[in-house]
Queue: 4 jobs
Job 1
Amino acid sequence: MPPPRVPADLLQPCAGYTGPLPQTEGQISDALIAEARGRECANGKLSAVGEILAVPIGHLGTSRMSSS
């Protein structure tokens, strides 16, 4: 079985807050929103990659099933 193809865009990082250290309440709010959007982006990509890599139980080889 060939390895699953994962689109390259799903392997790219998601941006979070990249600005200077927030000094005001408004800047903190902007930073929190940017971080939340970055995490939502990353979680969405992880979920998509997980779906792509999901293999039906009957198709797992013994080496992938070992817990060592």
Job 2
Amino acid sequence: MSTLSVKQFSACTNADVADALLSLASPLLAACGEDDAMKKLLVSLAVTGWNLSLFESPGEDGYRQKIEPRLPAELQGDKKEVFTRFILELIAAKQATYPAMLKGIKSWDLQLKGETLTLTVDALPVKPI
């Protein structure tokens, strides 16, 4: 006879995912000041980190290999390393802080109005519950 076990989980909404992502990226977003292009770049990289965090960890070197091709070509030297560290730290923070949020971000839109950031995401479950 088969045994069925049911795991209890709390579903997260797209708004929950967007809020979590902004909270993880907020220290660097705040440092951008009024540079909207930099804010959009950081959110783009944060989305990359979020999605990478959902899969089994290949270790820091494995993540680096997945991150580096996704960085903008114009980033060189120290800037490339700063953004790589940002994504690696975001992955670690996401896994530690939001381990139950198992939705990958399919698309996103960032609206900037003054100092207010509004992020909307379209997220889908990536692992069976």
Job 3
Amino acid sequence: MKIFSYLFPILFIAIAGPSLAQEAEQEIRQIIQQRAKHINSMRNPLDVKEYMDIFTPTYTAMRSDYLVDGTVNHSTVTKESMQNRINSYALNEKNPLSYTLDKINFINVLGTTAVANYTGNFEVRSNGAVTLGGFQNVTSTFVKTNQGWKISRSHITEVRTTMQQYTCKFQMFTQNKESFMAKVSYPIGSSFETDFLEVDLDDMGGNNYMLNTSKGDQFAWENGTLKIPNAKTGVIRSAVATSPPAVFRELIKYYFPQNCPEAELEK
């Protein structure tokens, strides 16, 4: 009888262990599927909250974005920066982003930690046309919390296979007659980034100005023509810009050439 009393806990663990692991695997599988669903359906703050709830408060991700021209961009994402990106496009009835979960390659559960790898495809549309498209591979670490399983860390690799003309929208704010600011949203693979660009004008006389940007650069704005240097060759080109919105349009194209080949003031 004593021998059986020793063996019973061992037998229980052996029987219950696989079942608990299977339950965890099923929950994690559902979270991955929910992630894809949320990306496509976010239209209001409640949708955003439901999406953010699948991550831990200290969530971080390492991203590698492989662009069509061979350029590779590496970045670190926090939960806060991810929410800022989402707010720049998700709270919009015309959410331009769509994501399709392709395959869950594996889910490995070990106690209160799990690792999963999954792949998907994304598209960004503008006026009905695909302007960006590509493939995403994600490896995520999940942890068991009091609220269930959550994603605590990810390694994301995105490979863009399509890049057409995309017109970035920007809002412009006048701080005073010599200082302006623009808020621009631009696509970064399967999400959008928001950035701010400030411009201060130094009046040089005779309808000529020197523009000082928050990026640390200076541009000559002479008689309605903006002088813009080529980032690689240094050759100066002249762009017609007869108003501050036109200036910002050219500066956005200069600072975000891969993401904003065109820019337009949001009306």
Job 4
Amino acid sequence: MTPLLLVLECVAALDGSFRILGVQGGSGADFTSILAGSGGRAAARTRLRPLVRHLGEIAQGRRVILLRGDARSAPTRPADFFSVAQRFRAFCPMLDWVPDQQAAALRDSPPRASNVDDWISLLEPVASRMKVRLGGCTGIGVDESAPGAALLLSGYRERGRQRGASVVMPADEVGAVLLLGPVESVPRGSESLEQIQWLNPPLLDELLDNRWLVTSLVDGAPSGSLLAPWIPVGMGLRTADEVRRFSLEVAPSNSGAVAALTPSHRSVGTRSRVLDRTAVLALAARQPERRLLAEELASVLSPRLVHTYEEVTGYRGSQLDALLRTPDGRVTDQGDGTFQFSAPYPFIENTVGVLRQYVDTRPVRCRRTGRNHRATIQAAVLGDQVLSCWYDFKPQEFEDSSTRDVRVTPTMEPTPSETLGELQDALGPFVKELSSQFFARVQSRGDLRRLRDRWIMEQTA
């Protein structure tokens, strides 16, 4: 079985066990985090040798491409999206993060440019000693005009700090692709791309972008108990009474927090909102008295939404590019020099939240502040081997035992060496179960869609 590259977000609970809060694919392997978790470039290269060795083995002497696409843009929400939400307002579609995204778009600076240069500079010395031919690009596609199967690589370079260029490369010269960016950067339906060895398979990263589906793969397995308990909220997937019962079954943490609310899909947002019991009960009061019926599901599973001519012309380049990649999109000529674009929209993923139990953690002393804070542990895993792990101190969850709400800049620090060994033992069975279930149950995009639809159907009345 091909090993997978995963980044697991964990916490060390007060009882000494580890709980898993989230799982990402290669897109979670951030360059800055890897350096911070390893303690510098030299240590990072040592930790990443197994990754380079594995890439060389599956490439079999051909070139290995590091694909690091641009940062994912926020999903476009046409007026038709809110029309559907209004029709189903009785089931409480979760739209709380829409104002947050709009405010962030005005406040935050543009995303940092693709850091394929950083990865090439880090891995090239290791690859050259192992005689692995390495290259990097910011985009990949299929050149239909070239004779035979050829790949079009955008921003291609073979050394760090080298100016990227668009090149056409025969497909048989590429042995493996390491996907380090959003899965949207991979074109769909190309036989030339499907024949290449991917780490990870794009279908895996697409599955992991949906926070529901990891649970559906490991449900029933002993290692599945490592996942923190959670329930879906919004669109009638849980009733008001069920949310209230969930809040009462969870003991409040030392800080009074009971749960964390997160969007279901990573494209919608990655930040969690920490809730105390009063906030959870207020959330429960907004939920319906009955679940969504199975016969009502078809209208909200993937409705075809219309983007007007005025909306499309106002989209930014990255949003327009993501829109045009949507499968089964249609353009309708209005006859007056304008058009409408329509496509299926993942409405459920955008309107259902994940309400997860807030896990009280052992305090960690931060070198930067000299105080004890709450921190998550990020672990980069290849197969069942932990490559690197680091503390991630989040400013919205910083909390000192004597001073509450200490606000600092986000920081990352390497974990002690003994923590890496503990994680190796704790996470190994979970990663093995997740990998075996993925390869057994998801062979195509149709399998992935059926897995998603079956899980949603099980949540309806």
